[in-house]
Amino acid sequence: MKQCIDCAMKRTPADLVIRNARIFNVFTGEIEAGEVAVKGDKIAAIGSGYAAAREYDAAGRILLPGLIDSHIHIESTMLTPEEFARIAVPHGTSAVVADPHELVNVCGVEGAEYVLQACERMRADGVSPLEVFLQLPSCVPATPFETSGARLDGRATAEELARPDFFGLGEMMNYVGVIAGEEDTLAKLETARALGKIADGHAPGVTGDALNAYLDADIATDHESLSAEEVREKIARGMYVQVRCGSSANNAALCAPLITAENGTRFLLCSDDKHAPDLMQKGHLDDALRQLVALGVPPLWAVRMATLNVAQCYRLRGHGAVAPGYFADMALVDDVKEFRVRAVFKRGRLVAQEGKPLFAVDRYLPAAVRGTVRVAPVTAESFRLPIGTKKARAIYVLPNELITREEIVPVCTKAGDVVLGEDLLKLAVVERHFASGNIGLALVKGYGFHGGAMGISVAHDSHNLVVLGDDNAAMARVVELLRQAGGGMALVAGERQEVFPLDVAGLMSSASCEEVAQRTAHIAALAREMGVKEGYDPFMTLAFLALPVIPHLKLTDRGLFDVDAFRFTDVEVKE
Predict the structure, then answer these.
(1) Which end of the chain is flanked by fewer CB atoms within 10 Å, N or C?
(2) Which of 75, 14, 85 is nearest to 46 (CA)?
(3) DSSP state of 257
(4) 10 Å Cβ neighbour count for 257?
């Protein structure tokens, strides 16, 4: 503190002075010319005439606070934490609130510890280029209706959340359990409250009395609103609404017209799930800022949503502004329209410049996140689906959405297997943690794929294998390819087969971001050639068909699940 005071009073030189900057003030909305004096890891002063050991010429560009993603699953990028940092930090990202929900569902708490260790090992000069505020996942598994690789009940959550490693409680996806007052679910939230740690939310379609009940559990945020009315109600009831600019879901266009001067402090930016090709081609939160400004949101409001608002919501003292006493986390951009990032500072260290990271990346891959795909043997017979009625329930996938709807379709069975009509496919979820042999089978309408099978070991949120196809033998072959690869994305069409390994927990690749982007784009293009329609990300839309906490009809390894009724239902429709 004294060193910063002495620097501010010009009694001692700064460690770094950024000269010729136009400083974006998130408190007033003004852009002011000046110098930023840094002492240690803090901003000591803003003004002029500071002596310094090091200087950086901003050349008249705009200096923003470092950008903070308010909710992300790093593993959903399919990149290791090191590779994610290497691509995200040059886009202005200085910190993330990370929920390792996917990793913990596969590997247990060791999966979360892996993220922390990987980021810590990137330290240079005592500074990690990416700061991770790690949350303890609240729903492992997301529901009791599926098989995950680990289980955290209320007692285990209390033990783990007390550790300083965990910043807060991850998104409470079991909103039905909260509203019903389930004892074990509430025990997790009571622990967060007692420890003074924030709890994130996940409450699609929750309004009225149910929203009141959900908020009684001290849940602070939500990124799953389905309508403008729902967003307005959640804001009015005191929630922070996260504007999600992800790869599989994006509600920027929904939220942008609702942001006002009066309620603007209640909106946060997040990516939730952002895939490697999008990070490479579009960017991270800088891309989200471009989207919001293009939708008519004033730059001040947009920038606050990725800086000051996040810091205030999560009580991140010293984050979110370029001001005295704040950490020297800053991003230099050309303007506040395109947000092209030229340089990034973390705790006063230059960590990226002109789109390139200035830190080394050595991958850390402990045994806990390797060799996680354990599948019982399957054959073509494993995917027979006899239906004894003339009508069946099919999952209809809504384009550009994570939600589905139920469609009743005419069917017939021949030789003990359903006959697939026009635009009808089989969907299978194959348990992969304990080789139990569980296989859930259902029908899917609308995807467009034909002539084989495709599958992925990313299947939110328990991450069993999810396989789609119209050929039983090809579906069995996809499962075997995924087993051999230790997880991944696979496609079979006749004699042709393609697989991209996700060898880290079956969720992430140990390859570089460039290779992940290139190879995932290649296998997705092959799926498009086999008919997958526009409006669906070939593999990642598939990954969400096993998520039984987003309406309306989903599939787990234990069967077809009605999310609205929160119970299993039959594929057959009895007359």
Answers:
(1) C
(2) 14
(3) G
(4) 12
- Distance (Å, rounded) from C-alpha 28 to C-alpha 49? 23
Alpha carbon distances (Å) from 253 to 40, 194, 201, 403, 495 = 41, 37, 21, 17, 43
Q: Kindly give, in sequence order, each residue whose CB lies less than 8 Å from that of residue 347, ignoring residues fewer than 6 positions away.
A: 41, 127, 327, 328, 329
Q: pTM to 2 decimals?
A: 0.92
Distance CA 568, CA 554 (A): 9
Q: Which of 5-9, 97-101, 121-125, 558-562 has the lowest mean pLDDT?
A: 121-125
- pLDDT tens, position by position, 298-336: 999 999 999 999 999 999 999 999 999 999 999 999 999
Asked if 95 and 500 count as a contact pair (C-beta separation under 8 A), the reply is: no
Burial class, 111, CB count within 10 angstroms (exposed 0-12 / middle 13-18 / buried 19+): buried
How far is C-alpha 312 from the geometric centre of its chain's CA atoms?
21
The answer to whether residue 338 scores a pLDDT higher than 90 is: yes
Taken in order of first residue, the domains within the chain and their CATH numbers are 2-60 (2.30.40.10), 71-287 (3.20.20.140), 370-573 (no CATH)
Cβ neighbours, 10 Å, residue 225: 27
Mean pLDDT within 545-570: 93
What tens digit of pLDDT does each residue of 184-226 get? 999 999 999 999 999 999 999 999 999 999 999 999 999 999 8
Phi, psi of 399 (to 5 degrees): -60, 140
Tokens of 417: 């297997």
pLDDT score of 537 more than 90: no
Buried b (16+ CB within 10 A) or exposed e, 56-90: bebeebbbbbbbbbbbbbbbbbbbbbbbbbbbbbb
Q: What is the DSSP code (8-state) at residue 127? A: B
Q: Rounded to 5 degrees, what angle do the CA atoms 520, 275, 552 make?
A: 105
- Measuring CA to CA, which residue among 494, 495, 455, 458 is closest to residue 475? 455
CB-count exposure of residue 289 (10 Å: 0-12, 13-18, 19+): buried
